[in-house]
Amino acid sequence: MPNILIVDDDINILKLVEIHLSKQGYIVLLAKDGMEALKILQKKQCQLAVVDVMMPYLDGYELTKEIRKKYDIPVIILTAKNQMEDKEQGFQAGTDDYLVKPFEPKELAFRIRALLRRYDKQKDDSVIQIGNTMINKKSYMVQIGDRTIILPLKEFDLLYFLFTNPMQVLSRNHLIEQVWGVEYEGDERTVDVHIKRLRGRFSNLTDDFQIKTVRGVGYLLEARRG
Q1: Nearest to 176 by CA among 168, 188, 160, 166
Q2: How far apart are CA 187 and CA 54, in angstroms?
Q3: Please, which residues have CB within 8 angstroms of residue 140's CB and are 6 or more apart in sequence?
Q4: 5: part of which helix (H) or strand (E)?
Q5: Residues 64, 51: contact at Cβ < 8 Å?
Q6: Residue 56 CB contacts under 8 Å (≥ 6 apart), including other chains
């Protein structure tokens, strides 16, 4: 089950939320302020954080900004105020949702489940795998077994687009528009150069896929089976 980080300087709220979420099967980690929360995040992988706004040392808005810089997890802000300014400040800090105190623990659990589903779907959409080769749009890394490959940006974008359109013949002009943009002023040979580099990088690393030339048209990524 997911690890849920709860950050609040009110021990009663911490205990109430811990009891309720634990019954739901979550692993609950507790922090009494923002600094303690950051220390927990450094040691434990959490899937979601529930953050109170009014805390000593590091308030909920600043903590949310710090989480956004380092971790790709949803954040729910708890606030005692139901003012538009507080909501606006929370979303500007990067929160995904907010809940006004006092709140029902069941409602918090509903919101947690909804956000976890949304983030799981986003992660699924950003990761594409063919055989033992996995390409991650969020981290901009290619993983082949235990080996990690970091590509130049345009090479990565080109490979990712090919991975999302396997077994399709893609013209050079279409690849230019999708990877370099419609305002790109270079010529189609740019595609040929980048394809050559990708072939050179991966031909000796994996046979999961092959980038084939379709004469007079463009390229096709063939995903090998078996």
Answers
A1: 188
A2: 56
A3: 150, 151, 153, 156
A4: strand 3-7
A5: yes
A6: 9, 33
DSSP state of 224: P
Question: Is residue 225 pLDDT above 70, yes or no?
Answer: no
Contact 31, 75 (CB under 8 A): no
Each residue's pLDDT tens digit, 77-118: 998 776 677 777 888 888 999 898 889 999 999 999 999 988
**pLDDT given at position 215:** 92
Copy the structure tokens of residue 142: 């290619």
φ and ψ at residue 30, rounded to 5 degrees: -115, 140
Is residue 122 scored above 90 in pLDDT?
no
The predicted-structure confidence for 19-66, as pLDDT tens digits, reads as follows: 999 999 999 999 999 999 999 998 888 999 999 988 988 999 999 999
CA torsion through residues 112, 17, 7, 88, sign: positive
**What residues form DSSP beta bridges with 4?**
28, 48
If you count them, how many residues does the chain have? 226
The residues pairing with 142 across neighbouring beta strands, listed in sequence order, are 135, 149
The per-residue pLDDT for 83 is 67
In 24-138, which ranges are continuous DSSP H helix? 34-43, 60-70, 84-93, 105-126
